[in-house]
Amino acid sequence: MALVLPLSSTFAKDFSMSSPNGKIRLALKIDDSDGTARILVAYKGKKQISMPSVRLGLRTNSRDFSQGLELVSASFPKKIKDSYKMITGKRSLCSNSASESTLRFKNPEGDILDVVLRACDDGLAFKYLLEARDGESVTNEVTAYEIEDGKKRWASMYDPRSYENFYEVYTEGSKNARGNDWQYPMLVENGEGVFALISESNIRRGNCASYLNNASDFKIYNVSLADKPLGIKGAWESPWRLMIIGSLAGIVESTLVNDLADPSKIKDTSWIEPACVSWIYWANNFGSKDFKIVKEYIDLAQEMKWPYCLIDCQWHEMKNGGNIDDAIAYAKQKNVKLLLWYNSSTIWLAPEVGPLFKLNDPDKREVEFAWLNKNSVRGIKVDFFDGDFSKIMNYCIDLLEDGARHKLMLNFHGATIPRGWQRTYPNLMSVEGVYGAEWYNNGPVLTERAAAHNVNLVFTRNVVGSMDYTPGTFSDSQHKHITTYAHELALTVLFESALQHMPDRPSAYKALPEQVRNFLSNLPSAWDDTKLLSGYPEKEAVIARRKGGVWYVAGINGTDKERTIKLNLKALKSKSGDYIIFKDGQDSKSFDIQNAKRTNEILEVKCLPRGGFTLVLR
After folding, report:
1. Rounded Cα gap, residues 584 and 237, in angstroms
2. Under 8 Å between Cβ of 77 and 100
3. Angle between helical axes of 390-405 and 362-374 (0-180°, round to 10)
4. What CA–CA distances, in Å, run from 576 to 252, 275, 496, 550, 601?
5. Which of 259, 304, 402, 412 has the most CB atoms at less than 10 Å from its CB?
6. What's the Cα-to-Cα distance from 78 to each of 4, 82, 120, 434, 590, rounded to whole Å?
7. Does the predicted model carry a pTM greater than 0.90?
8. Residues 6 or more apart from 334 whose CB is under 8 A from it?
9. Which long-range contacts (CB under 8 A, 24 or more apart) does 22-26 make?
């Protein structure tokens, strides 16, 4: 049991706690004038750097914990040490350590609010605990992050129904095209090579997701709840609010979002198998209605040795020589496992895009999942969720739990970003929540912005969980791409997604050099380790991912100019010096493929504008 210490007002002002490794220091400050509570955050590297401070508190329809607060007790900081295995994601064996204290606050009326505060080795996290009264609702949190002008931040405007916007760089608080709402994660550069990534984790049933809003003061980013108000019952706990803190490598390699999530609720996970998937929609809008086109993508999966084929929307209307039953039979004949698309039917987009209303009612969902099991369908893609409300979060959890009972893997599209569910429900294989390659279908904007955007995703969206960007588009869809072929190949390693959907036409893959096809045929989609070797937003990103004894290193140039990227391979500790590298050829649509032996730890790779490379080191 944690020792609870009564605190004098003097001691309360001096309360502080450090992470086990000593790099993160948290100090509580209660303002004498108004009784507002803040956590001051510092990172100790070569010198001590101040991070965004965090204001604490919330209001309900019957109580106010926003000011006049007094710290009446704090548990003696205890050591949190945790390790767990992951089937998906950037690392198969994860570990974390933290110091944790529960701070008990009292408002002027004597009401109690507890804050569980963690100083983690790679950041900070906190959550609220409150004994709810009958009929009580949280009207708003006053949780806020204060970011000083002059500090760069990469932020994306909030779109609760898709999370599909670019990450723009700002040096001061401002509005975006939709106002003052910003989605997670937000990346902040604090100086001296130290960054902070703001997000949240562990949304349980009954809680909604949140976002950031700086309408009242451009420098202050308040946590805003999707449910206004949020009804609470019994011993209520908020999700964890968090900041990952450290170098860019520390940000990218962190598993803090999953560390804070509940442990896996699925005992038998032997049926969960990450892998690559052929995907029909990118090159053939609504092509899943055409049996002959569907057969081509099943054939593609077989030829490329990808275990899965995703049949997208409107498969229930399939014609031109066959229906979904025929497609299922054909896939079994080819030894390809199918994934099927469903509309969430929470009424967001055009209701004619189906199948519709198959999953909302528990009884109908049970019938549908049983049908999928009977036909050996291995998973589903559920699309078009109506926002971040608690009812939608509950629905997602229902899908994951019922899916687990029926041994179905899930992929959420048009949905909220990952918030730790991949640890709690390992059958959640990926989430869209990104302005991805699908946008080459929707308009010309991605063409010019893709290279820098792809770099930014390494340091923002993909940090918090699997990202179904659908990389590796070599031909053009409705709108062209001007990234190089080597850049596109690199994205298949650079972007982590446990189901890595390969979106291009069969003819495009067949036209690739044999060595590139072999690479794609043997590509893992879940990893034993991940390291950022170099990079900076908008400029370049180089990631190394290990599967077994093989390192896959991928780098991209985010600029419109030629760029030489230097690789330091010492961190990989590979005993072998043999490698194959796929880099830019003489033009954007050609490769320079070389088998070589490493003679030193530093490699220099010349990239074309918007170019890239992929290296496999055994």
Report:
1. 51
2. yes
3. 40
4. 26, 26, 25, 10, 12
5. 259
6. 11, 13, 12, 37, 56
7. yes
8. 298, 299, 301, 302
9. 23/121, 23/245, 23/246, 24/119, 24/120, 24/121, 24/122, 24/123, 24/124, 24/245, 25/119, 26/117, 26/119, 26/124
Measure Cα distances from 380 to 148, 384, 396, 410, 608 in Å: 44, 13, 13, 5, 38
For 539, the token pair is 């400029």
The whole-angstrom separation of Cα 101 and Cα 114 is: 10
Two structure tokens written together for 162: 């898709």
- pLDDT, tens digit (0-9, with 9 covering 90-100), for 170-190: 998 888 887 899 999 999 999
DSSP 540-603: EEEEEEEETTEEEEEEEE-SSS-EEEEEEGGGG--S--EEEEEEE-SSTT-EEEEEEE--SSEE
Which residue is it, tokens 């990104």?
434
Give, for 93, the enclosing helix (H) or strand (E): strand 93-106
Residue 426, amino acid? P
Task: Write the DSSP string, 108-142.
Answer: TT--EEEEEEEEETTEEEEEEEEEPPTT-EEEEE-
- Alpha carbons within 13 angstroms on the beta-carbon side of residue 419 total 27
Contacts of residue 268, Cβ cutoff 8 Å, sequence gap at least 6? none
pLDDT digits over 303-350, tens only? 999 999 999 999 999 999 999 999 999 999 999 999 999 999 997 665
> CA distances (Å), 392 to each of 327, 425, 466, in order?
31, 16, 20
For the chain, the straight-line distance linking the first and the last C-alpha, in angstroms and rounded, comes to 48
Per this entry, what is the length of the chain?
Answer: 618
